[in-house]
Amino acid sequence: MSRSLTLALAAALFAVVAATPSVQPRTDELWYVYYDRGLRALEKSRWSEAIAQLEQALKKSGKSSANARTYGMRFIKYFPSFYLGVAYYNKGDTDRALDYLKREAAGGEIRKSDTHRQQLEVLLSAASGPRADQAALQAAEANRRKELETKLAEGIALFQKGQFANALAVFEAVLSLDPTNAEAKRQKELVQRQALEAELKQVRVAAQPKRPTPARPGGPRPVTPPAPVTPPTPAPVTPAPATPAPVTPAPVTPAPVTPAPVTPAPQLPVVEKVPATPPPKDTAAAPPRPVVVAQPRPQAQPQKPPEQPAPAGGGGAVVPVPVPVTVPVGAAGEKEPEKQPEKAAPVTPAPIAPEPVAPAPVTPAPVAPAPEPALTEAALFEARAWEMIRRGKDLLAKGDYEGALGKFSLVLTLAEDIPTLPSQLIADAKTYRDAADGEIKRGAEARRQAELAAASQAARTPPQVAIITPTNLEEPVKDEIIRFQGAVVDNNGVSSVEVEVNGRRFGNVQAGASTRGVGVVARPASAVAASSQPTENKGTIVNFSHDVHLTQPVNKVVIRARNIYGLTTEQVAEVKLEVKRPKVWAAIIGIGDYQHQNVPDLDFTVADAEGFYDYLINDLAIPKENVFKLINGEATTQQIKTVLGTKLRQKAAPEDMVIIYYAGHGAPEQDAANLDGDGLEKYLLSWEADPENLYGSAFSMNEIANIFSRIQSERVVFIADACYSGASGGRTVFSSGMRLRGNEIKDNFLARLSGSGKGRVILSASSANEPSQERSDLGHGVFTYYLLEGLKGAADGNRDGVITVDEVYEYVADKVPAETGQTQHPVRKGEVEGEIILGRARTT
Length: 844
Prior knowledge:
CATH class of the domain at 584-840: Alpha Beta
Radius of gyration: 57 Å
Number of strands: 24
Strand order of the largest sheet: 13-12-14-18-19-23
CATH topology of the domain at 584-840: Rossmann fold
């Protein structure tokens, strides 16, 4: 991978976090201050500063990674180890970069679904080896940027046309491919701001309270009382039987009236004032009609009209309407009406001159319906918010997640300005907003995957893998190590080649690297012969070579190649290993009747040796010619050397196993030059051994170690039922003058013996300071008795039918101390690769 693409990839990741609006840090969360500074330093390629800040953030927070870390009311992605790896990588310190990136990968905090996961894998590959082919990667990067520029221009055109939702979708797609695209971020913010302002404008316009138009539901039109006027003296009227027009409700024939004093009524009559102003055009031709109005309440007091001159141009005539209701003066609860000055007017049948009485005009109160209460601005906004939530839910159900997100986001924006909105409304808006946002992200990821899939089908095909050797995988191979060679070709560039053997991975390196047995060389496809490469003759060819260690009868080998777009191809091969059945060789030595008179005889050492011999022949079915048995006089120094140092060396192949069993006396001798740290050399006594001349007549542990080194077999098991402590009842011989002071003897000689070659295991009947006991009731040494019992099946703890060295040791280590009252503890020394099978359980 080119350095420019790696830096662009890193910058993309920085922008995802750096684009988060800054929040004033609190003193109890200082980790965020360092983390924010570190990310900003990464954006500006100030690697040293970024490293210092991110390490402080990691120190303060106490966590190396957290996919969602709370800071106040915000959630941020917190991957300090990941960004430290990026900073160190770009600074040139690939070792520390790899350390931090592996730490992040091992922590598992970056989920597989997270975009950081893919980038982490790419950076791990980049930090593990040299950079990929520069030209191919630069061309791929140029194509990608050209594609992004085209999409960006499309989004800007939609924005200019006012298609905010479509433009926002395009900018989101650009940012999903390139999170660091500053122009896409800026355009997205502009679109969101313009859409929000337009929506808010609509909301505020719709929420403006309208001026109420007063209704007139059938009641009388309110009449403004006109100024009282003095009516002019009418012309003489000749009485006639005709009905005068202004009289209501029925025609009245005037009769001769006898002049009399006029007593004013307790309440003024209700009159209708004919308007002095001209009527409207549509009603100008209609003559004025007298209006009959209900009588006023008796409690109302008569009003004295103010004396004003009649308006110029005349006015409407006031026609008095007689009221036939009289209220007695002084009635309870009523005030006495004011008396009008009496005026006598002679009445004759001649024309009547009415008195110029100007009653106060009484205007009935207009009957209007109660006005509807005006909505407050908060109530209007709440109603509008609920309506937007309803519309957003409809859009969500239709799959218009962008539109739904806009509605719910607008509601939450209103909630910031109007604190009186119900909490349930805000909670619903947040819930649906998160649902819409989640669907948008899933849709963006699905579109990205679809685009990748479409691109891969059109031009980005997966890499092709060809295995050149071995040529014939059907036949079993004899060698445990076999070399796999082949080639990987890809049109755009190979990112990594990985070899996996039986589930164990090797390699995982960038193209052009060679590491741990995987050799990878990148070159143009045309440079490889057609006979040894896939058919495509363009792009990049990567040759690989790996030595595969076959450890099973059938071995699964996987060659896994990945190109720069993350597309992967696996080539699987099965290799059969020709199994060689190993042979077992054994030397059995048992001495109970020693030649020298100062060496006491032992009762059951021969029985121990014979019992072990019978087990090998009868239970393990080892051929007799593979087992060398030396009993009593046969076990001379010369014979033992011949069997161990010559015959086993000649017979046993490296894949075979050798078992050596010894039952007899052991003896210590003072030797200041001994390497065990106790000043004592340990010996195994042959049949003719002299306790006064152990060096010349017995086998020291140094000599046995030299003999072991001559045996070619990689698996050697040495079992000794002897001791060196001289305790009562044990199998030990002391030379004259030999005295032990306390627990002086050490077990170091056993470790020295087991370390003389690969796969050496030593089983000793007891530790150096303990006796190796034999019992008449058992007919054997205690150790050998339980050794044979365990090998015949009692030690098969996992019930798989075979007994390993470890299983039989665990068995005797449990049984022998219990049988001897904790005075004898078997010892095991040595290490081997895998398991050494020493026996098999008997089937019944």
